[in-house]
Amino acid sequence: MADSNKRFSGKYGTYALIDKIGSGGNGEVYNVDIENKTSDIPIAEEYVLKLLVLKPQMKSDEKERREKRFRREVEVVSTKLRNINGVIPILDSSYENEENTDSSHWYLMPKAKKFIPNEYTLEEKTEKMFQVAETICELHKINLSHRDIKPDNLLIYNNRLCLSDFGLLWTEDYDMQITGEREAIGPEAIRPPELEAPINQNSSMFQKSDVYLFAKTLWIVYTGIRKGFYKRYSRVDDNIYLKSLLKTEYTLEPIHELIEDSTYDDYMRRISIEECLHLLSIQSNVFNSNLSKELLGELRFKEAFIPAKQTTRPDEIRIVNENEIYKFLSKMCMNSKIIIAEFEKEILLGKFKSIKLIEHDIYEIGVDEIHEFMNGTEKKIYVLISAVCLEGEGKCTICVNHIDNSNRFGKVCLQINQIQRMTGKICLDGKFELRIVP
User: Fold this and answer.
1) First-to-last CA distance in the chain?
2) pTM for the full predicted model
3) Among candidates 347, 240, 267, 256, which has minimal Cα distance to 306?
4) CA atoms of 162 and 88, how far apart (whole Å)
């Protein structure tokens, strides 16, 4: 409980501290009762007061730096950010009442609610984080950078997820040093390299720092793992990869791309917050079934193809090892279609449903929605795969060789134009190409 006698005089009345509800690097937050409330106070259900706390053991330069941060937060939020959705307004502050003899520094705000991600669905989390990205975008448009984006600084106000705590906000209008020489910024696991101590006060990189912090905060909001993760997002680490952690049937390819492209160590390689908004919008359309089948298929294909490619060890762009071929194709089934090509002709066989290694480098491929020439019920293709060629992002060709005694697997097809109706079991024998496509 706060000291019941602690009161501050302001333009809307006397602010009496009730109880402490939070604290951070720059102060403590209290519920307040406003005594002798004036009629012109902005309407809110409840109000809170943030109080700057300077501990006696702090050195004088540290106290001065913290006070500068606090004053700047009040000034910028009250002016530059006053009309930005997603920023909780400051209603009053000690700097507007400097005739008071009390030397304390404080500001008054409407009370916001704590953001608890596990109370929301995946779709709702995406919508809320889209709102945060919109706010960051507005900051960047006026050359500001938050630099302290993390789950603890997200609050619900007016049914919107808002950014709070602007004590480390960067703007070129202020040339004062607000971080110590050896002071890093933000939690270690989600901190971009450029915010490690000592920090180069270079505004050109701080907007990309926001993108990095936003992407890792998005990951924490999705997973509920508050520690976050170190370094760049990885699709091949099941402790990090969202598809492994969330067990959702939806494709999360737009989010994979967002976090992957936002967490490069080199800030120059990171995408912008506008690009983050675009990818979040695509993800929302996935959830709302607002994408065409073609685009949705491409996303699912890419989500399967990239980690499958990353977890193989190809010789240049050719996978020739039997185990690696099987591992790669296993990850592609259920998310792909198969085309057979020979003599510049192509036939879509259908959906790639299953893969089985039945003998040394002979594979049984199960397909669905098969071409009319396979009118049987089994719908199996038998191939001897000599290699899988990865031809850049999303392009994959299976090289098929001759099989000894191939008739025992099914009718042998020598050319596409000679394919006959059969039982649904076919052995592709010869120099055919099978292409895996979205």
Assistant:
1) 61
2) 0.79
3) 256
4) 7
